[in-house]
Amino acid sequence: MERQKRMIIDGDDYYLDLLFYHRKLRRLVAIELKIDKFKAKYKGQMDLYLKWLNRYEKQEGEKTPIGLILCAESSREQIELLEMQKDGIMVAEYWTELPPKNLLEEKLHEIIIEARERLDRKKLTQETPKSNR
């Protein structure tokens, strides 16, 4: 829909990198591009943009806008602790070039291990009786 979407908040100009509309989801999709590692402050920035879009751009019949932050490097633990998915915000890492096959395989293996560990932790907290917490 728009590149460098201008938003005026308290008299200050803010610019969202990219704004899309997803027809099947029936919602606006805000995308922020970052050239560095994910920082917790990016969540606040995206949250502000999503709330503005929800108030001023969302039309009748549309669902709440969602956001995607694309970073050169993610910070998995910060992202997990911030529970950003609850606010409709996702973070993804981008590569400017494909790494060598062995490095890509290693990275995918690490991601699978981390995902399994998160699932195991989640299962443990769900299985633990409330009296033991």
Strand-helix topology:
Blueprint: E1 2-9, E2 12-22, E3 27-33, H1 41-56, E4 66-71, H2 76-82, E5 89-93, H3 101-127
Can you give me a brief rundown of this structure?
The protein is of the alpha/beta class and 133 residues long. The chain is built from 3 helices and 5 strands; from the N terminus they run βββαβαβα.
How would you explain this protein's 3D organization?
- The chain has a 5-stranded mixed β-sheet, with helices on one face.
- Helices cover 38% and strands 28% of the residues.
- The chain has 2 domains: 2-96, Trna Endonuclease, Chain: A, domain 1 (3-Layer(aba) Sandwich); 97-133.
- By secondary structure, it is an alpha/beta fold.
Features:
133 residues; alpha/beta; Trna Endonuclease, Chain: A, domain 1; 2 domains; 5-stranded mixed sheet; 5 strands
Looking at the chains present, what oligomeric state does this protein adopt?
single chain
Instruction: Compute the number of strand runs.
Output: 5
Major sheet summary line: 5 strands, mixed
| Shape label | globular
CATH architecture verdict of the largest domain: 3-Layer(aba) Sandwich
Helix content: 25-40%
CATH topology of the largest domain: the name is: Trna Endonuclease, Chain: A, domain 1
| C-alpha-based Rg, rounded | 18 Å
Percent strand equals 25-35%
